[in-house]
Every structure is written in C-alpha cells, then in structure tokens.
Amino acid sequence: MDSPAPRRDDLIVLGADQIRRRARKAAAIGLAGGLLYVLVGPGTGPPAAGEEIPTAPEVRALHPDTGETGGGPAESSLAALQADLTYALPAAQVDPALAAVEGDRLVQVMDDGTRIELTLDPMLQRAATRTLEKYKVDYGVVIAIRPATGEILALAEHAEHRPELTHLALQAEGPAASLFKLVSAAALLELTDLKPEDSICTHGGLKGLGLEHLRANSALDKRCQTFAEALGASNNPAFARWADQLLRPAQLQAMADRFLFNRRLPFLWGVAVSRVRIPTGSRLAFARSAAGFEGSQLSPLHAALIVAAIANDGVMMAPRLVARAVRGEQELYRATPARLTQVLRPEIARQLRQMMVETTTSGTGRKFFEKGGKPRLPVAVAGKTGSLSAHDTGVTRHYSWFVGAAPAEAPEIAVASLVVNGEEWTVKGIVPAREILDTYFKMKETGSPAAR
Q: Range of 157's domain?
C-alpha cells in the first residue's frame, strides 16, 4: 500500500560524520539510561499492563569484592551508590563486528583487556549478516531475539551503497506500515467483542483507503474473511472499518502507548523513539492509521520487541546485547533479564499469536513459508508482513517488513526484518527473516547451544 512520504528518511540522508556523531551520542544515551536504572531502579514486582516504566538496564554493575549489585534507594543515597559503581561499560566501543568467536559466544576484547561477552550466537549472526550481503539490499536489518529473556541472538545490518552507515536497527523514521495492524488487532481483541472467527466482507483498499471503504456495499463487498484471515492477508478495508465502527482514537493511542510507542527504549545504545499519533479530528485519517497507512514510525529493534512481547504471553523484556564483562578472573558486569511491561494479558497475546499464523499459512507470507505445497520449516510460524512506499523529493523507497515468532504455540525465537529497496527490488523483508528461522531450527536439530 502506498502513502505520502515520511518527513525524513534517515536511512539515506545521513553522511559518515553524522553517523559517527549519532553513534557516539547514542552510546552515551543508552549507557546513561542503563546506569540510571542501576542507581534508582524499580521494585521487583511485575508492572501491570500499560504501567509507566523506568529505563531498564543493559547490565548491572557488580561490586568487585562481594559480587552483589548496588542496593536500592531505600538502602543508601544516590551519591553512595554512584561511589560504589566501579566499572562503566564502554558502550561507544562495543562493536559486534570486532568480536571473535570463542566457543558458543562472540567476545570482544577491549584495549584494557576487558572481555565483553555478547549475547549474539555466532552461527545466527553469521547467517544474518550473509543473507543481507547475499541479496545486496539497499538498506536492511534483521534481528533475532529470545522472547523470554530479551537476549539478542542476531543483529545484522547492511547498506549496499553506503557501508559507512551503522545502527540502522536503532533508527525509527521509516513507517510501521501494516505491522501496526498488530496494535489495532490487540485493541480489537481486548476492548471489543470481535472474535478471531468473526467475518467481514470488503472490497478494494490494496493501495489506498477512502470513505467508501468504511461503508458496507453489498454490490462490491465480495472479499469475505474472518478477523484472523484478515490479519493474515493484511486486509486494509477490514481493519479500517472495524476501527471506525468499534474503537475510539484514544483507545488505539493507549494501546500503542502500551506497546511503548512514544517512549525511549532502554538499550546499550540510544534508540530513536518510535512515534504514533492517532488522528482524532478525521474519521478517515483514524481509519487509515488503524490499517497502518499513516501516523506511525518504527525502529527495527522496537519491531523485534513487539513481536517478542506477543510471543512471551504479553510480557516485553528489555533487549540485551551484552551477556557479561570480565577482566582477568573478575566479573565486572553480568546481565540479568528485566521486564519492561506487561503489554497484553496472556490470553490476548496467545489469541493474537494464533491469528498471526494465518500470515504464513494462507496470507501474505504463505508463498515464502511453503515450497511445493509443503511448509519450509518444521514448526508453525506466527508472523506479520508490512509494506509501504515513500516518495520524497523524487526519491522512492519501498519499505518491506516482516516480524515473526516460532514455534507459534510456544515461541523460542522472535525475528524482525526490514529491507528498504529503491526502484529496483532485490528481496522482501520476509526472506532474511525466514532464513534466520530456518538456520535456528537446523541448529536445534544438531543441538546447538543457542537453540536449546
């Protein structure tokens, strides 16, 4: 589907100097956020759905003598805690491309001898990097994450003609496109009586939505699908009409905020904020936003966290790239899983996840997950595609998304992939994601540690 261009396309306008400045600033912001969490972190109880969250840590500092993490505000003052922290992770220097394989880990050795052990799995990371290079994508990102812990198993990016570009996974100025239908579907499941088996008949809407699509027309509405099938087929008029009839803009905005749109995500490096502004003054604009045509921007890292939360029964975990930091025999940092928020109730997340299987079995992703009428993978995949074209000052960019989790009934891995093509297409975002899933389950067959 097509839409007016985003205001800026930072996947193509940044120069090398700007990239370096952004990378340094991003690392500083990410590290500062993580340090703040260590110093004034929250209590241990799980947050409620939509609860305000503090910035979460990438890693927790360990006291060099006791091996304990610093105490909370109740035990000591902020100044005392600051004095107790003896090591700061050099976020600006952490670079997976400089890490070497050691056993089942990627390890980067810093100038002072500190060994930074990454959560990345060497085989998955290599597969992710090679698939983007193989297809020579203009701009591409693929991320694999363990939903239950937030550990990032693969994080690869590629810019065929701009190799100096880095941290593409952290940028959020591309459109969310039809991935936003996951937010709309969550709102419809939780706030209305709409059930996955309920059906609707629509017409048109493949590349645009008008007021005529919001009204039932028995003469034209010949495309009949259930709610689940409409999600799998990314049926724009269906989602536009359901939103128009069953939801209020404030409800959809609140659900987007629960998925942590409009919030800065905690990470080792700074992550651009994914923005959603649901229109309130236009019926058509509201319906278009619910279908993913306008109003939302998304970073690939955030996309991975969204599908990981759905995979993890509604719990969004903080993303982690560093497993631990060691110097000699002394462990300086050890990462621990941290919950960000309960985005959805478990039953809603499971219902949504099951609906997403339609994408790979009968919907927009079917031809990529089947070969000769048989599934390419040994497990069911819950997924969602998204595509949108942007035209800015004569430059065309085609955004192609895929997010997925597998096995669908009890996900072990979640993936997010974004490919941005110019006028000449090389591959859709679903292909690198499928290849990573294929690699993961082949690894599992051989007993690889990352897939256990």
A: 16-41+121-320+338-451
Return the CATH number at 193: 3.40.710.10
pLDDT digits (tens, 9 = 90+) for 84-142: 345 788 999 999 999 999 999 999 999 999 999 999 999 999 999 999 999 999 999 99
- In angstroms, the CA 154 to CA 382 distance is 19
Q: What is the pLDDT of residue 222?
A: 95
| Residue 15 CA from chain centroid, whole number | 25
Contact 304, 155 (CB under 8 A): no
Four-CA torsion 260, 262, 267, 272, nearest 10 degrees: 140
Instruction: Say if residues 314 and 346 touch (Cβ distance below 8 Å).
Output: yes
CB 70 within 8 A of CB 61: yes
pLDDT at 78 over 70: no
Residues 6+ apart with CB under 8 A from 257: 50, 263, 276
Residue 304 in this model has a pLDDT that exceeds 60 = yes
The mean pLDDT value for 319-325 works out to 97
Minimum mean pLDDT among 57-71, 390-404, 405-419: which range? 57-71
Q: Is residue 31 part of a domain?
A: yes
For residue 259, give the DSSP letter. T
Note whether residue 329 is domain-resident: no
Which residue, chain included where needed, has tokens 């649901």?
278
Return the ∠ at Cα 176 (arms to 376 and 137), rounded to 5°: 55
| Inside any domain, residue 260 | yes
Domain count, the chain: 1
pLDDT digits 0-9 by tens, 406-416: 999 999 999 99
- 82 in a domain, yes or no? no
Helix (H) or strand (E) holding 17: helix 16-40
Q: Cα dihedral sign for 144, 259, 190, 175?
A: negative
Inter-residue contact 204 to 213 (CB < 8 Å): yes
- Phi and psi at 62, nearest 5°, equal -110, 140
